[in-house]
Specification:
Length: 290
Protein backbone atom coordinates (compact mmCIF):
# COMPACT_ATOMS: atom_id res chain seq x y z
CA UNK A 1 0.00 0.00 0.00
CA UNK A 2 2.78 2.38 0.73
CA UNK A 3 4.07 1.83 -2.82
CA UNK A 4 0.64 2.42 -4.37
CA UNK A 5 0.03 5.58 -2.30
CA UNK A 6 3.34 7.18 -3.34
CA UNK A 7 3.21 6.30 -7.03
CA UNK A 8 0.42 8.74 -8.16
CA UNK A 9 2.03 11.56 -6.27
CA UNK A 10 5.29 10.88 -8.07
CA UNK A 11 3.60 10.99 -11.46
CA UNK A 12 2.00 14.38 -10.73
CA UNK A 13 5.34 15.75 -9.61
CA UNK A 14 7.00 14.60 -12.85
CA UNK A 15 4.27 16.31 -14.94
CA UNK A 16 4.78 19.57 -13.01
CA UNK A 17 8.50 19.52 -13.73
CA UNK A 18 7.79 18.90 -17.44
CA UNK A 19 5.62 22.08 -17.76
CA UNK A 20 8.33 24.11 -16.11
CA UNK A 21 10.72 22.94 -18.76
CA UNK A 22 8.28 23.75 -21.55
CA UNK A 23 7.82 27.29 -20.26
CA UNK A 24 11.57 27.68 -19.76
CA UNK A 25 12.37 26.58 -23.34
CA UNK A 26 9.50 28.05 -25.35
CA UNK A 27 8.67 31.17 -23.29
CA UNK A 28 11.45 33.39 -24.72
CA UNK A 29 10.62 32.20 -28.25
CA UNK A 30 6.96 33.18 -27.83
CA UNK A 31 7.94 36.61 -26.46
CA UNK A 32 10.30 37.16 -29.42
CA UNK A 33 7.55 36.30 -31.90
CA UNK A 34 5.15 38.74 -30.21
CA UNK A 35 7.79 41.52 -30.31
CA UNK A 36 8.48 41.00 -34.01
CA UNK A 37 4.77 41.07 -34.84
CA UNK A 38 4.34 44.36 -33.01
CA UNK A 39 7.46 45.88 -34.70
CA UNK A 40 6.36 44.86 -38.19
CA UNK A 41 2.89 46.26 -37.62
CA UNK A 42 4.38 49.63 -36.57
CA UNK A 43 6.62 49.87 -39.67
CA UNK A 44 3.71 49.16 -42.01
CA UNK A 45 1.66 51.96 -40.47
CA UNK A 46 4.58 54.43 -40.28
CA UNK A 47 6.81 54.33 -43.41
CA UNK A 48 8.83 57.26 -42.07
CA UNK A 49 9.51 55.47 -38.81
CA UNK A 50 13.16 55.02 -39.64
CA UNK A 51 13.78 58.78 -39.87
CA UNK A 52 15.44 60.45 -36.94
CA UNK A 53 14.23 63.92 -37.99
CA UNK A 54 11.39 65.60 -36.10
CA UNK A 55 8.13 65.84 -38.04
CA UNK A 56 8.49 69.64 -38.43
CA UNK A 57 11.73 69.26 -40.44
CA UNK A 58 10.54 66.59 -42.88
CA UNK A 59 9.69 67.98 -46.30
CA UNK A 60 6.45 66.63 -47.78
CA UNK A 61 6.63 66.68 -51.60
CA UNK A 62 3.77 68.42 -53.35
CA UNK A 63 2.80 68.77 -56.98
CA UNK A 64 4.73 72.04 -57.15
CA UNK A 65 7.92 70.50 -55.77
CA UNK A 66 8.25 67.57 -58.20
CA UNK A 67 11.61 67.36 -60.03
CA UNK A 68 11.80 69.66 -63.02
CA UNK A 69 12.38 68.24 -66.53
CA UNK A 70 16.03 67.79 -67.48
CA UNK A 71 15.80 70.65 -69.94
CA UNK A 72 14.73 73.11 -67.23
CA UNK A 73 17.33 75.08 -65.24
CA UNK A 74 18.23 73.89 -61.78
CA UNK A 75 16.08 75.33 -59.01
CA UNK A 76 16.46 75.38 -55.23
CA UNK A 77 14.56 72.55 -53.47
CA UNK A 78 11.60 73.52 -51.32
CA UNK A 79 12.08 73.34 -47.60
CA UNK A 80 9.73 73.56 -44.65
CA UNK A 81 9.64 76.74 -42.62
CA UNK A 82 11.24 74.89 -39.71
CA UNK A 83 14.49 74.40 -41.65
CA UNK A 84 16.95 77.35 -41.47
CA UNK A 85 17.18 79.26 -44.74
CA UNK A 86 20.61 78.85 -46.33
CA UNK A 87 21.91 79.25 -49.84
CA UNK A 88 21.57 75.84 -51.55
CA UNK A 89 24.46 74.29 -53.44
CA UNK A 90 22.68 75.17 -56.69
CA UNK A 91 23.17 78.86 -55.90
CA UNK A 92 26.75 79.59 -56.81
CA UNK A 93 28.29 82.92 -55.96
CA UNK A 94 29.07 84.12 -59.48
CA UNK A 95 31.77 86.69 -60.19
CA UNK A 96 32.76 88.05 -63.59
CA UNK A 97 36.40 89.10 -63.89
CA UNK A 98 37.12 91.32 -66.90
CA UNK A 99 40.79 91.74 -67.92
CA UNK A 100 40.82 95.02 -69.83
CA UNK A 101 42.05 95.35 -73.42
CA UNK A 102 43.69 92.39 -75.21
CA UNK A 103 44.80 91.28 -78.66
CA UNK A 104 45.41 94.22 -80.98
CA UNK A 105 44.28 96.56 -78.19
CA UNK A 106 47.35 96.79 -75.99
CA UNK A 107 46.05 99.54 -73.72
CA UNK A 108 48.54 101.81 -71.99
CA UNK A 109 52.29 101.23 -72.04
CA UNK A 110 55.27 102.18 -69.91
CA UNK A 111 57.55 105.03 -70.96
CA UNK A 112 59.77 102.68 -72.95
CA UNK A 113 56.86 101.07 -74.76
CA UNK A 114 58.00 97.62 -73.67
CA UNK A 115 55.25 96.85 -71.21
CA UNK A 116 51.60 96.55 -72.22
CA UNK A 117 48.60 97.09 -69.99
CA UNK A 118 46.72 94.18 -71.60
CA UNK A 119 49.32 91.73 -70.26
CA UNK A 120 49.29 93.08 -66.70
CA UNK A 121 45.48 93.07 -66.68
CA UNK A 122 45.39 89.41 -67.70
CA UNK A 123 48.08 88.35 -65.21
CA UNK A 124 46.27 89.87 -62.26
CA UNK A 125 42.82 88.75 -63.42
CA UNK A 126 43.89 85.11 -63.74
CA UNK A 127 45.46 85.26 -60.28
CA UNK A 128 42.21 86.69 -58.83
CA UNK A 129 40.25 83.92 -60.54
CA UNK A 130 42.48 81.25 -59.01
CA UNK A 131 42.07 82.75 -55.51
CA UNK A 132 38.29 82.94 -55.83
CA UNK A 133 38.02 79.34 -56.97
CA UNK A 134 39.60 78.21 -53.70
CA UNK A 135 36.30 79.07 -51.96
CA UNK A 136 33.35 76.64 -52.08
CA UNK A 137 30.28 77.44 -54.20
CA UNK A 138 32.05 80.17 -56.17
CA UNK A 139 31.85 80.38 -59.96
CA UNK A 140 34.18 82.70 -61.87
CA UNK A 141 33.51 83.82 -65.43
CA UNK A 142 36.32 85.44 -67.40
CA UNK A 143 35.60 87.73 -70.32
CA UNK A 144 38.93 86.57 -71.72
CA UNK A 145 41.59 84.11 -70.56
CA UNK A 146 44.16 84.66 -73.30
CA UNK A 147 45.58 87.56 -75.30
CA UNK A 148 42.56 88.14 -77.52
CA UNK A 149 40.50 91.21 -78.35
CA UNK A 150 36.96 91.27 -76.97
CA UNK A 151 34.53 94.07 -77.76
CA UNK A 152 33.21 96.02 -74.77
CA UNK A 153 29.65 95.14 -75.78
CA UNK A 154 30.57 91.44 -75.82
CA UNK A 155 32.10 91.67 -72.35
CA UNK A 156 28.86 93.13 -71.00
CA UNK A 157 26.82 90.52 -72.85
CA UNK A 158 28.87 87.72 -71.26
CA UNK A 159 28.35 89.23 -67.81
CA UNK A 160 24.64 89.88 -68.18
CA UNK A 161 23.96 86.40 -69.56
CA UNK A 162 25.70 84.81 -66.57
CA UNK A 163 23.41 86.32 -63.93
CA UNK A 164 26.53 87.23 -61.97
CA UNK A 165 26.48 88.79 -58.52
CA UNK A 166 29.39 91.16 -59.22
CA UNK A 167 31.47 92.40 -62.16
CA UNK A 168 35.07 93.51 -61.64
CA UNK A 169 37.08 94.97 -64.51
CA UNK A 170 40.87 95.01 -64.06
CA UNK A 171 42.92 97.82 -65.70
CA UNK A 172 46.03 99.91 -65.23
CA UNK A 173 46.02 103.67 -65.48
CA UNK A 174 46.92 105.30 -68.80
CA UNK A 175 47.66 108.80 -67.45
CA UNK A 176 51.20 109.96 -68.12
CA UNK A 177 51.77 111.34 -64.64
CA UNK A 178 50.75 110.13 -61.19
CA UNK A 179 50.78 106.96 -59.17
CA UNK A 180 48.49 104.90 -56.98
CA UNK A 181 45.29 102.88 -57.20
CA UNK A 182 41.78 104.19 -57.85
CA UNK A 183 38.50 102.37 -58.48
CA UNK A 184 35.67 103.69 -60.64
CA UNK A 185 31.93 103.15 -60.24
CA UNK A 186 28.78 104.61 -61.78
CA UNK A 187 28.37 108.34 -61.14
CA UNK A 188 24.96 107.76 -59.53
CA UNK A 189 26.38 105.43 -56.87
CA UNK A 190 25.55 106.31 -53.28
CA UNK A 191 27.60 105.48 -50.21
CA UNK A 192 25.47 102.40 -49.49
CA UNK A 193 25.13 101.20 -53.08
CA UNK A 194 26.59 97.78 -53.84
CA UNK A 195 28.81 99.28 -56.55
CA UNK A 196 30.48 101.64 -54.12
CA UNK A 197 30.69 99.02 -51.38
CA UNK A 198 32.38 96.62 -53.79
CA UNK A 199 34.93 99.26 -54.76
CA UNK A 200 35.47 100.27 -51.13
CA UNK A 201 36.06 96.72 -49.91
CA UNK A 202 38.59 96.07 -52.67
CA UNK A 203 40.44 99.35 -52.22
CA UNK A 204 40.68 98.94 -48.45
CA UNK A 205 42.35 95.53 -48.70
CA UNK A 206 44.65 96.63 -51.53
CA UNK A 207 45.75 99.55 -49.39
CA UNK A 208 46.62 97.16 -46.55
CA UNK A 209 48.85 95.16 -48.91
CA UNK A 210 50.80 98.30 -49.78
CA UNK A 211 50.17 100.63 -52.72
CA UNK A 212 51.98 103.83 -53.63
CA UNK A 213 48.88 105.92 -52.87
CA UNK A 214 45.16 105.44 -52.29
CA UNK A 215 43.35 107.61 -54.82
CA UNK A 216 39.93 106.60 -53.54
CA UNK A 217 36.67 105.46 -55.09
CA UNK A 218 35.84 107.63 -58.10
CA UNK A 219 32.46 108.30 -59.74
CA UNK A 220 31.80 108.14 -63.49
CA UNK A 221 35.00 108.41 -65.49
CA UNK A 222 38.03 110.66 -65.54
CA UNK A 223 36.96 114.28 -65.90
CA UNK A 224 33.27 113.61 -65.30
CA UNK A 225 31.06 114.83 -62.48
CA UNK A 226 27.94 113.52 -60.81
CA UNK A 227 25.93 116.10 -62.72
CA UNK A 228 27.20 114.82 -66.07
CA UNK A 229 24.46 112.25 -66.66
CA UNK A 230 25.53 109.06 -68.43
CA UNK A 231 29.25 109.73 -68.16
CA UNK A 232 30.50 106.34 -67.04
CA UNK A 233 32.94 103.73 -68.20
CA UNK A 234 31.20 101.50 -70.72
CA UNK A 235 31.36 98.30 -68.66
CA UNK A 236 29.99 100.03 -65.56
CA UNK A 237 27.14 101.58 -67.53
CA UNK A 238 26.11 98.46 -69.45
CA UNK A 239 26.31 95.64 -66.91
CA UNK A 240 23.21 94.62 -64.98
CA UNK A 241 24.96 93.73 -61.73
CA UNK A 242 27.01 95.87 -59.30
CA UNK A 243 30.33 96.61 -60.96
CA UNK A 244 33.58 98.50 -60.63
CA UNK A 245 36.66 99.23 -62.70
CA UNK A 246 39.96 98.87 -60.84
CA UNK A 247 42.92 100.97 -62.00
CA UNK A 248 45.88 99.04 -60.56
CA UNK A 249 48.48 101.79 -60.64
CA UNK A 250 49.94 103.86 -63.47
CA UNK A 251 51.78 102.23 -66.36
CA UNK A 252 54.02 105.31 -66.44
CA UNK A 253 55.00 104.94 -62.74
CA UNK A 254 58.11 102.96 -61.88
CA UNK A 255 56.99 102.46 -58.28
CA UNK A 256 53.55 101.21 -59.39
CA UNK A 257 55.12 98.80 -61.87
CA UNK A 258 57.49 97.49 -59.21
CA UNK A 259 54.64 97.06 -56.75
CA UNK A 260 52.56 95.28 -59.37
CA UNK A 261 55.33 92.78 -60.08
CA UNK A 262 56.45 92.12 -56.51
CA UNK A 263 52.97 92.11 -54.90
CA UNK A 264 50.88 90.52 -57.63
CA UNK A 265 49.86 87.56 -55.45
CA UNK A 266 49.07 89.84 -52.52
CA UNK A 267 46.92 92.07 -54.71
CA UNK A 268 45.07 89.04 -56.11
CA UNK A 269 44.40 87.80 -52.58
CA UNK A 270 43.16 91.24 -51.54
CA UNK A 271 40.70 91.55 -54.43
CA UNK A 272 39.38 88.00 -54.02
CA UNK A 273 39.05 88.32 -50.24
CA UNK A 274 37.21 91.64 -50.58
CA UNK A 275 34.68 90.07 -52.96
CA UNK A 276 34.13 87.14 -50.60
CA UNK A 277 33.82 89.37 -47.53
CA UNK A 278 31.28 91.67 -49.17
CA UNK A 279 29.19 88.73 -50.34
CA UNK A 280 29.29 87.23 -46.85
CA UNK A 281 28.45 90.50 -45.10
CA UNK A 282 25.48 91.12 -47.40
CA UNK A 283 24.34 87.47 -47.18
CA UNK A 284 24.80 86.96 -50.91
CA UNK A 285 27.45 84.29 -50.32
CA UNK A 286 27.38 81.42 -47.86
CA UNK A 287 30.51 79.26 -47.86
CA UNK A 288 28.85 76.60 -45.65
CA UNK A 289 25.73 76.15 -47.81
CA UNK A 290 24.64 72.50 -47.97
Amino acid sequence: MAYQNSNPTGRRRRRHIRWDRVILVFGPIILLIIFLCVKCGKNENDPAGSSSLPESSIVIPTADSQPAPESAPDSAPETSEAVPSVLPVEHEYTIVIDPGHGGNDGGATNAEGTRFEKDDNLRLSLAVRDRLLQYPHVRVIMTRETDVFVELSERCKIANASGADFFVSIHRNSAKDGNGVEIWVNNNATDNSMDKLLAGYILELLDKEGISSNRGVQLGYRGSTRETVGNNYYVNRNTDMPSCLVEMGFMSSTIDNNNFDSKLDNYADAIATAIIELGTDKQIYNASAQ
